[in-house]
C-alpha cells in the first residue's frame, strides 16, 4: 500500500536559509533516510519544498478565485516536504514516519494514497 508522509515543522528553525549548518545537517539526514528507503525498494518519491515565502495559494470563495501569498493555513508549522512510500501496511508506514528527521518540534502526517 502507498502512503505519503507529510513533514510539518516551523521554518523559523532554519532562519538564515539553506546556507546554515542546521539546514545542511537536516538535508543530510533526509538524504541518508531516503537512501536507505530507496535501497529497500520502499521509496516511491519525495522532496523538500521551498520556503513558504515562495508559495502562492489559489482559494475559491463563493465561486470566485483569489490569489494569496504564502500558504493559506495560519499555523506555526509549515509543510516542508514529503516522502511517498510503498509498504505492507500502516504499521510499516508508521515505523518509517518515526525515523523522519525533524529540526525540533514538528509532526509527520501519515496518510494512505487513494487508488
Protein described:
The protein is an alpha+beta fold. 23% of the residues lie in helices and 37% in strands. The protein has helices at residues 21-39, 90-97; strands spanning 2-9, 43-48, 56-61, 64-69, 78-86, 106-112. It has a four-stranded antiparallel beta sheet with strand order 2-5-1-6, covered by helices on one side. Strands 3-4 form a two-stranded antiparallel ribbon. β3 (56-61) and β4 form a beta hairpin.
Which descriptors would you attach to this protein?
two-stranded antiparallel sheet; 115 residues; single chain; four-stranded antiparallel sheet; alpha+beta; Alpha-Beta Plaits
- The CATH topology assignment is Alpha-Beta Plaits
Q: What are the low-pLDDT stretches, counting only 5+ consecutive residues below 50?
A: none
Dominant shape? globular
Count of all domains: 1
Mind describing the biggest β-sheet?
Answer: 4 strands, antiparallel
| Helical content band | 10-25%
Mean pLDDT reading: 90
Assigned CATH superfamily: Dimeric alpha+beta barrel
Q: How many individual β-strands?
A: 6
State the distance separating the first and last CA atoms.
9 Å
Instruction: Please tell me how large the radius of gyration is.
Output: 16 Å
Strand line-up in the sheet with most strands: 2-5-1-6
CATH class: Alpha Beta
- Beta content: 35-45%
Number of helices: 2
Give me the CATH architecture, please.
2-Layer Sandwich
Structural class, by secondary structure, is alpha+beta
Amino acid at each position: 500500500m502507498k502512503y505519503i508522509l507529510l513533514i510539518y515543522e516551523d521554518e523559523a528553525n532554519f532562519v538564515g536559509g539553506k546556507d546554515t549548518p542546521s539546514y545542511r545537517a537536516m538535508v543530510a539526514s533526509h538524504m541518508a533516510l531516503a537512501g536507505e528507503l530507496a535501497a529497500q525498494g520502499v521509496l516511491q518519491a519525495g522532496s523538500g519544498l521551498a520556503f513558504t515565502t515562495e508559495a502562492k495559494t489559489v482559494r475559491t470563495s463563493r465561486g470566485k478565485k483569489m490569489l494569496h501569498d504564502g500558504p493559506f493555513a495560519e499555523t506555526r508549522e509549515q509543510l516542508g516536504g514529503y516522502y511517498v512510500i510503498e509498504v505492507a501496511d500502516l504499521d510499516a508506514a508508521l515505523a518509517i514516519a518515526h525515523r523522519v528527521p525533524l529540526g525540533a518540534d514538528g509532526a509527520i502526517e501519515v496518510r494512505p494514497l487513494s487508488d
